[in-house]
Design brief:
CATH class of the largest domain: Alpha Beta
Helix content: 40-55%
CATH topology of the largest domain: Rossmann fold
Number of helices: 14
Structural class: alpha/beta
Strand content: 15-25%
Largest sheet: 7 strands, mixed
Number of strands: 11
Strand order of the largest sheet: 1-2-9-6-5-3-4
Order of helices and strands: EEHEHHEHEHEHEEEHHHHHHHEEH
């Protein structure tokens, strides 16, 4: 299978994403060149430790690289101040220095947590992202967003901190639970819905092969990474159009908060529901053709993803509470609501000063 290399062009902070088979097995040799003489602190969750850590440890040891490892619990609960404190304390206790590096080895939770720990420990250590979930490979490991959750909202505590290298091993996806893969697929489809209708159409034709593996999966991941690389290079700190990458996230983050950042709703599942809601809300506002919203719903539902509030297990709070969660979104500016809305598939845009009353009426229609 072909290995894809996607460059992230950020001047002196530029780096590469390597996508392909056996990337973890070759990682030690790569890191010995990037970080000569360095030691490494590996952060992973219990599931990744069981499934993938022997490969990583063998690669580092074969290259003569010294490392220590810490394991956290899987799930959004680890994106907390308490777990961050534990990880930072581990890095300091292991006497890892500023010239050493943190390896974020896992899915989006570990990538965000370990990346933030690297950003703040000793005022900035080296960072290597080794994403093992589809969501992390196509989205969260790329672009330098790191952070943890607050009880008041998703990702409200964090920093922009770029890695030195991203190693996306396609083989790691073979041990990923199907539900996790589906959740990651929502973030992949997002790139087509933002500004690449041709990619969304390609996914409609090739979704089964992407799920089955093989060349289509590698091609789709590389395409998604290249799409994010382009946006990040143009707007590293989300001062402008990078906010488009949050399509579906304003609704999705509110739903994650409403479900307690639990396994009731994975992040990618929240994004799936959120993208459908964003299209439906755009239809209600007279911005988006109804048939486009129907296509989005059908495609994500066909991938086994939730597409409505009714698809989320358990009770949800009333619309008023969901709106309160939305008001904590990072895109809120001086109290004004900002949404990523759309004029159709591939035509998303940033909508500022969205009327909260219209959002509340829309949410009431959904509950």
């Amino acid at each position: 299978m072909t290995t894809h290399t996607v460059p992230i062009d950020l001047g002196e902070r530029s780096y590469e994403i390597e996508i392909g088979p056996d990337v973890i097995d070759r990682l030690g040799g790569k890191l010995s060149g990037l970080f000569p003489g360095a030691r490494f602190g590996v952060v992973m969750d219990e599931n990744v430790k069981a499934a993938q850590y022997p490969r990583l440890a063998a690669s580092l040891e074969a290259a003569g690289l010294s490392h220590s490892a810490i394991t956290v619990s899987p799930g959004e609960g680890s994106k907390s101040m308490a777990v961050l404190d534990t990880v930072v304390d581990f890095l300091i206790a292991e006497k890892l220095e500023r010239g050493d590096a943190v390896i974020a080895f896992g899915g989006g939770v570990v990538g965000d947590l370990a990346g933030f720990a690297a950003a703040i420990t000793r005022r900035g250590m080296g960072l290597v992202q080794v994403p093992t979930s589809l969501l992390a490979q196509v989205d969260s490991s790329v672009g330098g967003k790191t952070g943890i959750n607050s009880p008041r909202g998703k990702n409200l505590i964090g920093a922009f901190y770029q890695p030195r290298y991203v190693a996306a091993d396609l083989g790691a996806l073979d041990t990923l639970p199907e539900r996790q893969f589906r959740a990651g697929y929502a973030e992949m489809a997002k790139y087509g819905l933002i500004d690449d209708a041709a990619f969304f159409h390609w996914l409609e034709d090739n979704r089964a092969e992407v799920f089955a593996g093989g060349p289509a999966r590698a091609e789709a991941i590389a395409h998604a990474c290249a799409a994010k690389a382009r946006v990040v290079a143009e707007d590293e700190r989300e001062a402008g159009n990078r906010a488009l990458l949050n399509l579906g996230h304003t609704f999705g983050h509110a739903l994650e908060a409403a479900t307690g950042y639990s396994d009731r709703l994975f992040h990618g599942e929240g994004v799936s529901v959120g993208m459908v809601l964003a299209h439906d809300f755009s239809v209600k506002l007279g911005l988006c053709p109804g048939q486009d919203a129907s296509r989005v719903r059908a495609h994500l539902s066909g991938a086994g993803l939730p597409v409505s509030l009714a698809d989320i297990p358990g009770d949800l709070p009333p619309a008023e509470t969901l709106l309160e969660h939305i008001a904590q979104d990072k895109k809120v500016t001086r109290g004004s609501l900002t949404f990523i809305l759309t004029r159709g598939i591939g035509h998303s845009f940033i909508a500022k000063d969205v009327d909260p009353a219209s959002v509340l009426d829309f949410l009431k229609d959904q509950t």
